[in-house]
Design brief:
α2 packs across α4. Strands 1-3-2 form a three-stranded mixed beta sheet, covered by helices on one side. By secondary structure, it is mostly helical. Helix content is 63%, strand content 7%.
């Protein structure tokens, strides 16, 4: 990665985390995605990944937009972790419940190391979310949105293609795309990416 581009990415992340008042800044990596994904958030490792293909000066406006989008997801997962710590009345137990939720929804994370330190620092700086906290209702909505998040895996598509044919595969893709667009996490992230 070119040094100037790397500085641009890190400066953009710093600006976004400062503007969104994120209690703890996530790490950001440039990796190669084999699908058409431009950027992704990994809630298990608390990292933002940018597609290496787009790591070019020409894509700077898009990179800025993607970082804003993914930073919003990090903020959402921080709120969920704080919520689980609050309802369980024990930070470690709450983080274990949060970890279980993430692994249920994203089983591919099971071979990665959970970034417990990131979430503990978040809880230390912003506190837990209990029933009296103003974000309690929002946190419950986020948990529901995570549970309803569609499986966007291409392996799922290939399995349907093998079992039911190409028409069913495209119907399934359309259904997943619709669920993805309507999901609260994605709706809020799309709003965040448009903010100045």
């Amino acid at each position: 990665m070119k040094i100037k581009q790397c500085r641009f990415i890190l400066n953009t992340l710093n600006q976004v985390t400062e503007k969104n008042k994120l209690p703890v800044k996530p790490r950001i990596h440039s990796i190669l995605f084999f699908d058409n994904c431009a950027a992704a958030t990994n809630p298990f490792t608390a990292e933002i990944n940018l597609n290496f293909i787009y790591n070019n000066k020409l894509f700077r406006p898009l990179i800025k937009k993607w970082i804003k989008h993914e930073a919003k997801h990090i903020e959402q997962y921080q709120i969920i972790a704080r919520y689980f710590a609050g309802i369980s009345e024990n930070i470690d137990k709450g983080l274990n419940n949060f970890k279980k939720l993430i692994l249920e929804k994203f089983p591919t994370c099971s071979n990665l190391k959970f970034n417990e330190n990131f979430y503990k620092q978040t809880i230390k700086k912003d506190g837990v979310i209990n029933k009296r906290h103003p974000l309690f209702g929002k946190a419950q909505e986020y948990v529901k949105a995570v549970k309803e998040y569609p499986n966007l895996s291409t392996f799922d598509d290939l399995e349907i293609l093998r079992e039911k044919g190409i028409i069913e595969m495209y119907k399934n893709r359309f259904r997943k795309a619709k669920l993805y667009k309507r999901n609260l996490l994605e709706r809020e992230a799309r709003i965040a990416e448009k903010e100045k």
